[in-house]
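Ticket closed. Logging final result for Winged helix-turn-helix domain-containing protein.
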Amino acid sequence: MRAQGLDRPLEAERHRTLNRADIARTVARMGVLQIDSVNVLARAHYVPLFSRLGSYDTGLLHAATAAPPRLLLEQWGHEACFVPPATHRLLAGFTRRWSSGHRIDAHPGAARLRERILSELHSRGPATALEMASRLTAHDLSAPEQELAEATTGHDWNRGAIKVLLENLFDEDLVTTAGRTEYFHRIYALSRAALPPSVRDVPPAPRSEAIARLTELSIAAIGIGDLAAIADVFRLPPREVAPELDRLRTSGEVEAVHIEGIERPYYLDAALTVPRAVAGARFLSPFDPLIFFRPRALQFFSLDYRIGIYTPAAKRTRGYYSLPLLVDGEIVARADLALDRKTATLQVRGAWDEDEVSIDEVRRDEAARAELERLATWLGATSIRVPSDAPGAAAARWRRW
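Final structure:
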């Protein structure tokens, strides 16, 4: 929690005006800010910043990622994520998630269509995949190009051939993003035109150097973890991370520690000052770096978490989009939250107590109420509602507020 900045007072609650540099510094401390289209409550990548800063203006994140000079850049790391420019450069050249199943380079029209896309971005500027498809219809395409341009390779997110070619160019760092639309579609731009000089003009580091530095950033971000947890931050191969942890242990930059009942070693950031206790409360996004590696969340917080949005309804045990509630260093409950934008109501569709917590019920419920009110204010909700059929013992208590 110290490493992730979750032991500190909320910046926005200290009556200090935040700016986009505050957003960038917070993401740098987190290591990564995972991007996701989930919008049941708020865009998934907005919530981890709220957990650390309080009621901030989400426009600051857009300013940090889309307005030059950009302080955060989109990259494949821990899935799609925002990272500082230096981290973006370290991740360049790694195998991406998209490329594995969506390569269409062998098609006879691919090479020429790819060049047309680059030419369009150069001459007319950034575009979404749909906008690029519209632009290309104005060209006199060859038969193979036309066939490919009209091809469809998926069912959602407009995963046609043009989208695939744009994503492949993104993978190769020839194309980057100039932000996202309100519907979460990428706006593609030429990297040479959009990236800051600190990234654009620096060649990618050799893989061994990149792995070494990314390992250091990972342990600094999570504070303590085993090999699997540290490698997971940037989805690095554990076999390449292990020698770097040995190097850091030899140099004294990390300490190997053992946790009772667990045989494998854990690694602690030696530069970290560990607080005696953590006070305060906050809801956590399912994509928060504190808990996004589920085995670590189970080991450290006894949180057996499975996100409902990816689980068939019949198999859900804790709702559709449950946010764990962190109170005084313990995860004490989960609440299935949603924002009804038509009625400006924060809906608590279920709330469950976690097992074997040491914090008493009164403190847990006081913290939950305060956090729900703070969350509602940030989201622009004018009321909080716990429906009569909302499941869970915590929901039954909260309904009586």
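The radius of gyration is 23 Å. No further action required.
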